[in-house]
Amino acid sequence: MNPTPALFISFKSLQENFVTLIELIGFGESFEWLATLLAGISISFLIINVMVVATAFYTWFERRMIARFQVRRGPNRNGPFGMLQPFADVLKLIMKEDTIPDEADKPVFTLAPIALLAPTLMIMIVIPFGTFLNKEAFLSNLNIGILFIVGVTSVNSIAIFMAGWGSRNKYAILGSMRGAAMLISYEIPMALGITSVLILSGSLAMTEIVRSQSVWFILVMPMGFFVFMAASTAEMSRTPFDQIEAESELGSGYNTEYSGIKFAVLFLAEFMAPIVTAAVVTTLFLGGSQGFDFLPGGIWFALKMFIVIFGLLWLRSTWPRLRIDQIMGFAWKTLFGLGLFNIFLVAVEFTLAREFNQVNNGSLTTEYMLIMAAVNWIITIAVILIMANVVGRKKYTRPEPTPSPLANMGLGEN
């Protein structure tokens, strides 16, 4: 499969177009800074609007698919097949009163939705959507792209805590504290899963990670993919890891006091998260825009994203919510150990590749990666079975009930 680039708009080409336009208007070279500013605003405007519209249609798709999983009809009133339902929801939320509690910390309360949405949008600027063969794709060629993603996603825990603290509501504070603890705990396994990718690719740039996947990393190191996907699902705060918004326990968690457009922004960030996660997973483990020549690379990237999104949706539709102790235990007792073991395994295999001259221009040869895939799948299945029996053994057998000695007290008095 060849990494076929797709048609794209680069920052450099936009800047050159604006420079030409400014010169035609009659301004000199001293106004080139304006061209740079206009190019940046244009790229930002494009990314924001594409992501907002994509998220709107994703909410419709999710509601329709969950309805099918649960033998319901889903949205079907507004527009054909209910496709205008997201826009009706947005209009309804805009028209609702934007209330702020009297005791709330108003600046923090107002900034929290923005702090939760902004990192999600910022991640998309370093994703190579079929552009990694073009040197003009400045942002997707960023040499610290994956480090940028890790740093940006860490802001989510702060934003959720801001929402709870600013609300001055006990349910919101409890939800935000549990959410911050969960997000911080799952950032560690997620970073461990990324580390194994960096060992094989030898670069922090997202474009180089895609280029190094002559065999997709999901096949080469399935354990790393499992760790990263599980941690990413928890980072999205979606079922079965949606303890932040456990409605049966906390009302609505950190967003209990939010209404109107602020509530819409919070849920826009939540529903945008699966799209962003699918883009990152496609880049790190599914070869990015690599595909056969009969379709552009951008189309291949979108198809892989859709498969990942559907898998996340299927998981949400079928699994029940876990308890908070189960969620935290899964992070520290299972994923943390699997992540460390996977790094050790990949490091040993990469060292052996150097010893046997299986490294070409910093990347492993295809033949050696296929051998790694066969070995790692066997090891992954064995390790997961062992971990399930060690960590989850007490869950398999139900303990025999022990009657309380106080249950029949008083029967012998008569």
List keywords for this structure.
414 residues, mainly alpha, two-stranded antiparallel sheet, 2 strands, 66% helix, globular, disordered N terminus
Determine the structural class based on helices, strands and strand pairing. Answer: mainly alpha
The average pLDDT value, as a whole number, equals 83
What value does the Rg take, in angstroms?
25 Å
Q: What is the molecular shape?
A: globular
Give a description of the structure.
- This protein has a two-stranded antiparallel ribbon.
- The longest helix has 38 residues, at 32-69.
- The protein is mostly helical and 414 residues long.
- Helix 7 (170-201) runs parallel beside helix 14 (324-355) and helix 14 (324-355) runs antiparallel to helix 15 (366-391).
- The chain has helices at residues 11-25, 32-69, 85-95, 106-123, 145-153, 155-167, 170-201, 206-211, 217-220, 222-235, 247-250, 260-285, 297-318, 324-355, 366-391, 393-396; strands spanning 359-360, 363-364.
Blueprint of the fold:
Blueprint: H1 11-25, H2 32-69, H3 85-95, H4 106-123, H5 145-153, H6 155-167, H7 170-201, H8 206-211, H9 217-220, H10 222-235, H11 247-250, H12 260-285, H13 297-318, H14 324-355, E1 359-360, E2 363-364, H15 366-391, H16 393-396
